[in-house]
Amino acid sequence: AARRLTAPDIRARKGGEPIVSLTAYHAHTARLIDPHVDFMLVGDSLGMVMHGMETTVPVTVEMMILQGQAVMRGSSRALVVVDLPFGSYEGSPQQAFATASRVLKETGAGAVKLEGGRRMAETVRFLADRGVPVMGHVGLTPQAINTLGSFKALGRDEASAALILDDARAIAEAGAFSIVLEAISEPLARQITQEVAPPTIGIGGSSACDGQILVLEDMLGLSDRVPRFVKKFADIGPAIGAAVESYASEVRARAFPGPEHVYAPKKG
Ligand code: KIV
Ligand code: NA
Q1: pTM of structure
Q2: Annotated binding-site members for Mg(2+)
Q3: What are the GO cellular component annotations (predicted)?
Q4: Domain residues for 157?
Q5: Annotated binding site: which residue ranges?
Q6: CA distance 39 to 143
Q7: Which of 11, 51, 126, 172 lies 20 to 30 A from 248 at CA?
Q8: Residue 214 is part of a domain; what is its CATH number?
Q9: Which are the catalytic amino acids?
């Protein structure tokens, strides 16, 4: 089998063929997407998508490690990046290193992602210097929901765009191997992509970015409410509902299980 892609492989894709990525939280979805993506993100969005939480704030390191292990078992080719959850890294570079090294050791993943720009630059440098590849995440940073007030696009006026550009520059200079740009205006995404050395990965960041990511369940049509930046590439929610409806009616009619699903007694 070919070796797994690494953070330096992703870093080297700047300005080339667009980088393809999706989230994965489970072994089975990891197995399905592995042949098609360059990296998969075990996103802390799993708190909202898998567990029905209102925000990503309650997600724990233990949850991220458990799903990170599952995704590693289900994949062999793509780089696996694991999100550091709220509260597990912002306190100090030392706290971030303790969490990130635990995540890498216990999951076998090849990189971590953390949210924040200038305020996290020192931490990004501290981790990158100590063997932890860091993916940055600027623009809309959902872990800051309680200070932001709502999940809305940012950087749409000049003052806010300038701050986000500074955020992206700061973590790029600190050594982030790639940077997620979430829910920002297209001209800003284009400018950041042109100015920073590591590849940018857009989610609501326009095609100007060096790559794209979406939450898998959102693009499959399994989520009830999705942001403007999501395209539904399939609508499997109704297909699941229809399958379950058929199952229920066949069970009630004793049409399932049929003779082909039944074990006969052994002869002799
Ligand atoms: O948690 C997540 O799914 C993410 C991506 C959407 C970038 O951080
Ligand atoms: Na996330």
Answers
A1: 0.97
A2: 44, 83, 115
A3: cytoplasm
A4: 7-236
A5: 44-45, 83, 113, 115
A6: 22
A7: 51
A8: 3.20.20.60
A9: 182
